[in-house]
Amino acid sequence: MPNVWNIGNTTVRNPKRIDYALNVFLNTGYSGDIDSKEKQGKLIDTFIEHQVLEYGDIKEEDKQLNGRKWRSCFYQLGFISGKTYTVNSEKKSVIDFFNEIGLSTITKPYEITPAGNKLLNAKTVPEIEEIYSRQLICYELPNALEGSFPEGKLKPFVLFLEVLKKLQDLNHEGITKLEVELFLQKFRNHDDNLSTDIVQEIVRFRNEISDLNSKQQKKIIQKYLEDFYFDIDMRLKSRSVRDYSDTTFRYFSLSGLFTRIGNTLVIRPNKYDFVEKLLESEPNFVFENNPQKYFDYFYNNNYPIPTDEKVFAIQEINKLKEGIRDRSNRLLKTANRITVDSLFSEIQAVRLLLIEYNNWEREQDFASFQQDENAVKDILKYLKVLNGEKVDDSPEIDDRPAFLEWAVWRSFLAIDEIISPIHTTRRFPIDQDFLPRNTAPGGGSDLIFEFNSHVLVVEVTLTTSHRQMAVESEPVRRHTVQYKEQFPEKDVYCLFVAPSVDNNVAETFRIGVWYKEDEEEFVNIVPMSLTDFISTIEIFLEKKFSNNEFKNLLDRCLVFRNVRAPQWQESISNEVSTWKRNIVSN
């Protein structure tokens, strides 16, 4: 009998990739067909092929286990069906259970649900966050898929919100992973007093260690940990529950309701009213009295939340309108026409558009901040870690390919002089803290920057050797030609950044030809090692340079491409060194 709860899965450490993984799961034939161990192992191969996972991340012998863990993550969040359902000690098949809740189209175990399809069809980050919010607010334990808990019931996400709100109302910091581990991860009956009891425990703990030095603090923390692990199922290793608190932070953050301040998670200020309104009616336990209603909510992603009420949704719209800096924006005129008599679908659409636009304006501020010296140092820290270098106070990176795109993007934001809207310069999605949710999708470059004099296309990868040739050579040239057609009046350059560039890839870029039937197009692509790219950005701390000056570096690199690929790559490194000296001396 488990004494602790866990949301999602510790194997699926980067839940921001769930929507992309689910899309691959559906479109490669696994929906309703992943019961066998062989299929579970093949799912991981498919994820690697579609770059959901990094190549070489998973050992061959672990693939079946990992495939099963991904499947478990999907059905725990309600995006696919389970295998069997236990209601009042009676086991029910998928067909029987889904007939009871009015979803007769679901006939197989592990088949995509309407909630899963809703996630796949979501177009914007605000939509995705709202889908996760509904699933997490609805989620309660035990249920027909997850049982065998001690006596009582629990809504983990709602409890988390209650505790955070009460802490913030007391002018305390948010909550740390250690505090989640010690005080929230244990399964307890979620009665009216539980959140107050936990807040008191946290405040007592903080007071106990507040005036101590680090050595004394460690001693007190160790005592708390020993007491905690004595009190729970001893079969659980301390590492397991520590991983649970980590996934709690990651999965709950998918809701968009929280932000990080240092090592704590706090309720985002613009979401406080939403949380306050929600907690007026939560925790609302549904499963015990009406299992069918609970899973109707869960599988249709229609659990009620405050923004389902017209009056509250319009209040949110009015607040968002106030935050728009560009008062001539046409979206404001549309929002001003919204009243309680408007169609609910129109109210919701405008509200989500306003959230997205508000995020774009905040992103402009984020871009401006990248020119700050501390921001450049932070960018370099990420780039160096991704390049395998050791740095002090190493940042947390849960998705290396996505963070590489993000760090290179921030590098060009720091150089600035971009004339296109900032949100159009990246093709990867970001969350409300401007952190990457995933890598850029196929069908275009990773980054695209328009300047007065030229356009810079940027492609980044962590792949190496033969995989780099297979994955990058063709699309990089094709995308560059597409942008040449899109910007016929400007010179278009492509920068290709990788930890190391395979000579076969460099050779295709050196020749720089793309054929459209019999017509050849010449493209300007410069392959640059991540080490050399880091070297150029390091100079920015000493002397700021312009994007035109960076363009001059690309021009110099292209001058020497009439040699063999290995020599060209060597000359690119040499040109970076020469360019750096010239920048500093001028």
Low-confidence stretches: none
Distance between the termini: 70 Å
Beta-strand content: 5-15%
Cα-based radius of gyration, to the nearest Å: 26 Å
Largest sheet, order of strands side by side?
6-7-8-11
Oligomeric category: single chain
The assigned structural class equals alpha+beta
Q: Strand tally, please?
A: 11
> Mind describing the biggest β-sheet?
4 strands, mixed
Q: Please give the share of residues in helix.
A: 40-55%
Shape: globular
Count of alpha/pi helices: 23
**Average pLDDT, all residues:** 92
In short:
The chain has 586 residues and is an alpha+beta fold.
Q: Mind explaining what this structure looks like?
A:
There is one protein chain. Helices cover 53% and strands 9% of the residues. With 586 residues, the chain is of the alpha+beta class. It has helices at 18-27, 37-49, 63-76, 94-100, 114-121, 125-138, 156-169, 177-184, 194-209, 214-231, 238-252, 272-278, 291-300, 310-322, 330-336, 344-369, 373-386, 400-415, 465-486, 503-511, 530-542, 547-559, 565-585, and strands at 84-87, 90-93, 175-176, 258-261, 264-267, 447-450, 454-460, 491-498, 513-516, 519-522, 524-529. The strands form 4 sheets. The protein has a 4-stranded mixed sheet with strand order 6-7-8-11, sandwiched between helices.
Fold blueprint:
Blueprint: H1 18-27, H2 37-49, H3 63-76, E1 84-87, E2 90-93, H4 94-100, H5 114-121, H6 125-138, H7 156-169, E3 175-176, H8 177-184, H9 194-209, H10 214-231, H11 238-252, E4 258-261, E5 264-267, H12 272-278, H13 291-300, H14 310-322, H15 330-336, H16 344-369, H17 373-386, H18 400-415, E6 447-450, E7 454-460, H19 465-486, E8 491-498, H20 503-511, E9 513-516, E10 519-522, E11 524-529, H21 530-542, H22 547-559, H23 565-585
Parallel strand pairs: 7-8, 8-11
Antiparallel strand pairs: 1-2, 3-5, 4-5, 6-7, 9-10
Helix pairs in contact: 2-3, 7-9, 8-11, 14-16, 17-18, 17-21, 19-20, 20-23, 21-23, 22-23
